[in-house]
Design brief:
Helices cover 23% and strands 29% of the residues. The protein is of the alpha+beta class.
């Protein structure tokens, strides 16, 4: 049989009615098939929002393909970044009851689905195929009225396969990951509902901030851009990045997740917020002498915090309030 369309092949060996070994996954992708994808066979809507059906969106923008030169550029661009192919049961993705894409504002482990992940680098080096969990990631861009392209999170657990991914995704340095985030972009993106935001589309601000903080000598999450496919459908460019949670700390500093207090803005991810509250009590009372300043330093890496503030002010970050878009970590020990 000759294959000319994008297709996900899942295969397993059986002997005497029993499965032998793991299920293998291979996604076959063709640039011209991506250019003409129309979502045939996939649902025309993705659930209901405020009593109205959410229209599905599968096609490539015709403006990207309107001339032979633009079509050639499109083919070239598909080879310019690594490919991350995600394959899961269609009902887990788009089903009316259990689909994560039809219920994007639902969160937590109950809205995590098994997924097969394939990663293909552009330099011909060895990628990987691994089973993991997949869920919708983030806050504002979960809303269908904001964007049809939701951010995603990959979670590696024993129930799916290996408890962590081991691969040099970002070159040198740490190559162990229990969580990875696929950042789809929302503010200042080409998909934003506001024309003003589309005109100022900028996909480099967040990676620049993270990379610059790392170059300042600080522990910072790394990332890289990749083309993402869902069940053989092209889903766009995502920024594949580390999530700076307690597992991120373990991979760099050792120990186990319970050794760290970790928070995503106002949400506690690990440990508790006892020392966090102590820090704010001290700061809000005012620092008038060296003893009080030393007490702050037992709970806060002051020089790292200064660099964090300098970077965000220089980078004109306007989206980092008390409840969103930053992380904090500390070892759960005296002086941590």
């Amino acid at each position: 049989m000759r294959v000319t369309q994008n297709v996900v092949v899942r295969a397993a060996a059986w002997r005497d009615g029993e499965q032998v070994g793991d299920i293998g996954t291979l996604t076959l992708l063709f640039p011209d098939a991506v250019a003409r994808q129309d979502g045939m066979g996939f649902p025309p809507t993705w659930g209901i929002k405020e009593g109205r059906p959410v229209p599905a969106y599968y096609t490539v923008d015709p403006e990207a393909l309107r001339t032979p030169d633009s079509l050639a550029a499109f083919r070239t661009a598909l080879h310019a970044l690594p490919v991350l192919s995600l394959a899961l049961e269609p009902d887990d993705l788009f089903g009316p009851e259990h689909g994560i894409y039809t219920h994007p504002e639902s969160n937590g482990e109950g809205w995590e689905r098994p997924v097969s992940v394939e990663y293909y680098p552009i330099d011909g080096s060895r990628g990987f195929t691994v089973d993991a969990g997949l869920r919708i990631q983030g806050g504002w861009n979960r809303r269908p009225e904001e964007s049809p392209k939701h951010s995603l999170r990959l979670v590696f657990r024993k129930r799916y396969g290996p408890k962590e991914l081991r691969h040099p995704l970002f070159g040198g340095g740490v190559a162990r990951f229990e969580t990875l985030v696929l950042r789809g972009g929302n503010n200042h993106s080409w998909l934003h509902w506001s024309g003003a935001e589309r005109r100022s589309a900028d996909y480099l601000r967040d990676p620049w901030m993270r990379e610059t903080y790392g170059l300042m000598g600080r522990m910072s999450s790394r990332g890289r851009f990749a083309h993402v496919f869902l069940n053989g459908l092209y889903w766009g460019i995502y920024n594949l990045a580390e999530r700076p949670d307690e597992h991120f700390a373990v991979a760099r500093l050792g120990g186990v997740p319970a050794d760290y207090d970790a928070r995503n803005a106002d949400k506690v991810l690990s440990g508790d917020e006892v020392v966090w509250r102590e820090l704010f009590t001290l700061a809000n009372a005012g620092i008038t002498d060296a003893t009080q300043y030393a007490a702050i330093g037992e709970r806060l890496d002051v020089s790292a915090f200064c660099d964090f503030m300098l970077l965000n002010l220089y980078g004109a970050n306007g989206d980092w309030d008390a409840s969103s878009n930053w992380y904090a970590l500390r070892p759960r020990r005296p002086g941590g």
